[in-house]
Specification:
Strand content: 35-45%
Length: 391
């Protein structure tokens, strides 16, 4: 009886001490900073659309949990909560199990508008329908800290723009997914700049359904596994061997336009694959230093393949103007000429069963490039939080 009573009391104490999840409304910069600092697992921070001058940088406070992430969300379905941030790092994400939705982190000359790292190992973070802008170097950058990589990070439906160097600079993270994102107006400071890259010893990254516009700025590259390489001392060692820049990455159904350098790229990657990607008004594919079997390209419209695996096949292009409805306006829906040139000319790929808009591909009538015939949407960026026309 005594044991039962003690167990019952202990359970009651735990029950009473466990704070229930809360809905926290923040309507000014001070309240937002306080909420970001104090919110716990399961809490939801709600902010109305509008501009908030944060006066400096912001950071996330506590860890969420797998079954109870912490959510920071702009209320409603239209507009963004625009956080104007300053300092070397505008927003630092150094915690786990967070969801950011409808938040525009607007850097005021930050070196990195968003920086993801942390001694605890930043991981399991989602950014949905967010915007990142205004940096002297990188829009979003991740980095390994204290031997902890930034893993399991998803960017879905995000826009990254107005950056002096790289738009999305992802270092030493496993299982990154960059999906349905729009990267443009990067590389404004000159030198070699990238729209999106994964490097630093990560594995299993996916870049899919993205639109990258190099705007013919200086020396711009579209999508890369490896980028400009990482210092060897920072790369992890696996099985006694220095890891490649990225291992087992997939880039599929992406559109890269107007880069002054190559559209797609690997540098010291391993087992990276490129499926059904499109390059328009820009150069080709290039592999620089490489591990064996990198890189495999299938069903791409990219033109010349410099250093691709000998197993690459069914690649043509780059895309021709007459194949698409209005490519200068990002409308890459197929014209009759495009259907004639591309439909039935590809190979079935088990790792890419859908097109850019989620339509199932026909294995018996495989199509080159990211978009199937009869597509209703355009490849133009769809801001899912923009006011709807006619409403």
């Amino acid at each position: 009886m005594r044991t039962f009573a003690l167990a019952t009391v202990a359970s009651l104490v735990l029950f009473l001490s466990a704070a229930p999840a809360a809905e926290i409304r923040a309507d000014n910069p001070g309240a937002i900073k306080s909420a970001l600092s104090k919110a716990g697992p399961g809490d939801v921070i709600l902010v109305k659309p509008g501009e908030y001058d944060m006066g400096g940088s912001v950071r996330l406070g506590k860890h969420g949990k797998k079954a109870a992430p912490i959510t920071f969300r702009c209320e409603g379905k239209e507009g963004y909560a625009v956080l104007k941030v300053r300092g070397q790092i505008g927003m630092r994400i150094s915690r786990t199990w967070w969801v950011l939705e409808g938040i525009h982190i607007a850097g005021q000359g930050c070196s990195a508008t968003v920086f993801a790292d942390g001694p605890g190992g930043c991981r399991d973070v989602k950014m949905i329908d967010c915007k990142i802008s205004g940096s002297k170097q990188h829009g979003i950058k991740s980095a390994r800290t204290a031997e902890k990589a930034v893993d399991n990070f998803v960017m879905d439906g995000c826009e990254v723009f107005d950056t002096a160097k790289t738009g999305i600079d992802l270092v030493s993270g496993d299982n990154w997914v960059v999906r349905n994102c729009y990267v443009h107006d990067y590389g404004k400071a000159g030198g070699v700049s990238y729209g999106i890259f994964l490097k630093g010893g990560g594995v299993d990254g996916i870049i899919e359904n993205c639109l990258v516009d190099g705007k013919k700025k200086r020396i711009t590259v579209g999508i890369s596994f490896g980028g400009g390489l990482t210092g060897k001392k920072w790369l992890p060692v696996r099985s006694g061997k220095t890891a490649p820049e990225h291992d087992n990455g997939i880039a599929r159904n992406n559109v890269v336009v107007n880069t002054s350098d190559v559209a797609y790229h690997t540098n010291n990657g391993a087992n990276c694959r490129f499926y059904n990607n499109l390059a328009y008004n820009c150069k080709n594919f290039q592999r620089q230093a490489s591990y064996p079997k990198d890189a495999l390209l299938v069903n791409n419209l990219v033109g010349k393949l410099m250093g691709a695996s000998r197993d690459s096949h069914h690649n043509i292009g780059p895309g021709r103007k007459e194949w698409f409805s209005n490519p200068e306006a990002y409308d890459f829906r197929l014209t009759p000429a495009g259907e004639k040139a591309l439909v039935g000319k590809g190979a079935h790929v088990e790792e890419n069963l859908l097109d850019m808009f989620g339509t199932k591909r026909d294995a018996a009538r495989s199509v080159l490039g990211p978009i199937l015939p009869g597509a209703k949407p355009e490849a133009v960026w769809i801001d899912r939080r923009a006011p709807k026309k006619g409403e």
